[in-house]
């Protein structure tokens, strides 16, 4: 199955490269964010960056391909700490593949788990063993996030890998210890009852027999006071309250206990507290007092056993007798662990002074310890520099005024706390550089807890009660998102999904909705039911808006904001159903777009398209689909619309467009309308029929392109009357010269049109560089020279005559080959171009006020340079003959 995914990845190589590129861009982006933050907060570490955070992070960050070898494309430097291999050795499998690093017995496990995660489109967290470079087996935990392409195919995995070998082994030791404890607990021949929060949670076999119960379940979940005779209730309450306050053992006390067979018994009870996962439990030891001698023997036996347990317990325990009139005490009893914790070996420390044993404590601590009167133990922490141990000491007094010292090695706990705090600080710094925040739902307190940044973003007061109330928070979610959120939570509470993840909109204080990515899972369970749920949430409004913008751009034409060709095809397929019959479809072509573009500029052509689309949009219904499917081509699909209604609508559109102006020229369109009223034809075929109708209309009447060209020419001459006079004069003289030379009708026809439109290309030249004298700066002349090519395209698009277009293209060529645009020389220049060049020079100079003699002299001087010498002679001869 992974091979199939790998083949897909190979085919989508560009997409994978893009994904990896985006990962690196994201890291760079976070680096930039933190760099900016560093500039504002100089008191922080100067060289901090997310890349450094990743490198200094306890775990290894990675990105890998989904293939048989799990080829790594990115590995942070912490790989060496976990695997013994450097990043370079693992990258691209240069020295070893990650598949080879995974322990053989876990390779299929890891692969199967990822196949399952890919199938369910879920993130993954798993623990497995690896073999490091020294051939040592180690446990690791992997948190993986699978990257998919737009079609939902897996591309790569990003994530973190942590070394958890220490925790695994500690857990194994703990389980082994618990098993030994349970075995000892069950095998003891005197009754023991375990109490938590004033409730019986466990008993051994001797206790079942003692209370003459039929089974363990008969006693479990009962309250201890229910097992005690009413006359002893007050005594029990006071003794149990003292035990809870002091968290130390109570002296043995006689109670009258009730049995399940209705009898009662006097028994000696001693409560011994112990702690697990931060919670206090109490072991209650019971000795039946049936006769004094047997009771004394069992009591002695129990005391010996307790003494042995104390002697070999994991905590250090010592008893000191205060020395009168001194701020000191002497040791009268200590178990083996006490000296081991202080000196890393067993020593007989009896009668050693407190001040000698605890020389690391300062004098103020002595005074505090020896003057301590509170029943609650005094807690101090000592660091042993020789053994590099942290020792937690509890100091309190018993009823005999002896100083009791309980000592525990908390070095491992301190190290774990240190690592936790470092990792938390690292994570907090990473999160602070992003939009990600942490939330907690405490179901026992019925309260939601957020970071303060949340209130700042949403604009609510920090002490707002409603937004922190789980029962009222739903009112802040967008109505359309409440169902999916409820479904995710329900699925999670039913254990159908490992965690919940949902994108929802939350209302801010201004009444606007912001998008959030909310994830969470239980961090504390009671009876397999989530009690405390925690997770992350991220303000993704900007990303969502970008996604929506990208989606809009992918489906809409950027200029007109109408649907584009892609959207048109999708909508056509959606609408091609019986329930939308009759479906009318219109194909629309904007007349003269190319003429507008070439003659007046593309910005004017864009204005033409926008105004046309706006008018058509105003006539479109909400159910209609209006799309731009080509440069000047539009389509409108009108579901449940007879053809008569569609044709009437387009007549109104045509009238409305004729009232619109672009460069003071009315807008016109050609269109064709067809209808689908049954399943005989598809909408695609109906579109082709409408297309044919449109072309019939386009070519059946006047040539709109010529009409538009004449309108453009007319508007230009209205704004530039001198140019109009020049062109009219050039046209008049060119036609006279063609008759004077007795040219053939076809050539005269070319000259007829070319002499009227030879300068049509200057209509698109910027007004600021245009002048009547044709004197330009260097760069302005370069732009001006483009008018001959513009004119060529305009005439070719309207008249579709190559000879006319060529006459206009080359009317600025010079006879000596130094003209433009093609540097043609002599008779290679079209005859019409040579004639227009002479007529245009003569007309402009005469209209600017030069004398005829001066103009003739100029024409004579430019023979064989700018002008055809024979045509100059003919032209001057024609002018003189008219005089």
What does this structure look like?
The chain has 883 residues and is of the alpha+beta class. It folds into 6 domains: 2-163, Beta-Lactamase, CATH 3.30.450.20; 170-311, PAS domain (Beta-Lactamase), CATH 3.30.450; 316-414, 2-Layer Sandwich (Beta-Lactamase), CATH 3.30.450; 435-545, Beta-Lactamase, CATH 3.30.450.20; 556-702, Alpha-Beta Plaits; 720-882, Orthogonal Bundle (Hypothetical protein af1432). Helix content is 46%, strand content 21%. The chain has a 5-stranded antiparallel beta sheet with strand order 2-1-5-4-3, with helices on both faces. The chain has a 5-stranded antiparallel beta sheet with strand order 7-6-10-9-8. It has a 5-stranded antiparallel beta sheet with strand order 12-11-15-14-13. Helix 21 (602-619) crosses helix 22, helix 29 (802-809) packs across helix 30 and helix 30 (831-847) packs antiparallel against helix 31. Residues 701-883 form the HD-GYP domain. Residues 65-121, 423-496 form the PAS domain.
Strand order of the largest sheet: 2-1-5-4-3
Q: Which radius of gyration do the C-alpha atoms yield?
A: 47 Å
Low-confidence stretches: 1-55
Q: Give the number of domains.
A: 6
CATH topology-level fold name of the largest domain:
Hypothetical protein af1432
Mind describing the biggest β-sheet?
A: 5 strands, antiparallel
**CATH C-level label of the largest domain:** Mainly Alpha
Q: What structural category arises from helix and sheet content? A: alpha+beta
Named CATH architecture of the largest domain: Orthogonal Bundle
Q: How much helicity do the residues have?
A: 40-55%
Form type? elongated
DSSP, total strands: 26
Number of helices: 32
Task: Assess the beta-strand content as a share of residues.
Answer: 15-25%
Overall average residue pLDDT: 83
CATH superfamily of the largest domain: Hypothetical protein af1432
* End-to-end CA span: 97 Å
